[in-house]
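Colleagues,

For the teaching module next term, I've prepared a clean inverse folding example: a structure given as C-alpha cells, and then the sequence designed for it. I'd like students to try predicting residues themselves before seeing the answer, so please don't circulate the second half yet.
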C-alpha cells in the first residue's frame, strides 16, 4: 500500500464525490483522461498517489478548478446576504452558454443553489442535460423556451416550472427576446459535499 498524505486522501475523496455527482463511472472518467480504471479505483480508495498533471486532467474533465481540491473547510455562515449587482458571475453550459449570477455563493453546505439566469446571453444552442435533484424556475422578465424531455414550452414573465432534474432539460432564448429568470436547484445529496455548483455542469467562473 502506498504512503498517502492526508491532503492526497482528501483530494481522492473529493474526486470520488465529484465523479459520482456527475454520474460518471470509473471507466468513463478513466477513458476521458487517458488513465487506467484500476489506477483511478486505487486512487479513490486512498491506495495510490496523484500527480499534479493527472489532477489537472481530472479537474478539467469534472469541470472544476484545480484549486478547489486544496480548499480547506471554513466555518459556515448562518446568513448570506447578496446585494443587488454583487453576486458572483458564471457562464453555464460552456463558452457559448448563458450568464448567471450566484445569489448565495458565500453559503457552504447548501441544499439549494439560487441563480439569476440571463437566458438571452447564450450565443449557441443550449444542450439538454440532467442532474440529480429538483429545480424551480421563475421567469420575471421576457420570454424563453423550456425543453423538458421531448416536450417544448414557451414561458413568459410570471410563469414558473418545478421539475425533476433527472430528466434532460434546458432553457433557450427566443430570438430577439430578452429573458431573465430565477432558478433554484436543490438536492439532499448536495449537503454531503458542500458544493452544489459541480452538479450544474459546464460552468466557468
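(Answer key — instructors only)
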Amino acid at each position: 500500500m502506498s504512503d498517502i498524505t492526508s491532503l492526497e486522501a482528501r483530494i481522492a475523496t473529493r474526486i470520488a464525490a465529484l465523479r459520482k455527482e456527475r454520474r460518471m463511472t470509473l471507466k468513463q472518467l478513466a477513458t476521458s483522461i487517458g488513465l487506467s480504471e484500476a489506477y483511478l479505483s486505487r486512487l479513490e480508495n486512498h491506495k495510490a498517489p496523484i500527480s499534479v498533471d493527472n489532477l489537472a486532467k481530472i479537474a478539467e474533465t469534472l469541470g472544476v478548478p484545480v484549486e478547489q481540491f486544496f480548499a480547506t473547510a471554513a466555518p459556515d455562515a448562518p446568513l448570506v446576504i447578496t446585494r443587488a449587482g454583487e453576486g458572483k458571475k458564471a457562464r453555464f453550459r460552456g463558452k457559448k452558454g448563458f450568464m448567471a449570477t450566484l445569489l448565495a455563493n458565500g453559503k457552504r453546505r447548501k441544499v439549494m443553489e439560487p441563480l439569476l439566469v440571463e437566458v438571452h446571453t447564450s450565443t449557441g444552442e443550449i444542450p439538454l442535460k440532467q442532474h440529480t435533484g429538483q429545480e424551480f424556475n421563475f421567469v420575471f422578465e421576457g420570454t424563453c423556451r423550456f425543453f423538458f424531455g421531448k416536450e417544448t414550452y414557451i414561458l413568459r414573465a410570471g410563469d414558473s416550472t418545478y421539475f425533476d432534474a433527472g430528466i434532460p432539460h434546458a432553457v433557450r432564448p427566443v430570438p430577439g427576446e430578452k429573458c431573465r429568470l430565477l432558478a433554484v436547484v436543490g438536492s439532499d445529496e448536495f449537503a454531503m459535499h458542500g458544493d452544489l455548483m459541480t452538479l450544474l455542469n459546464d460552468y466557468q467562473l
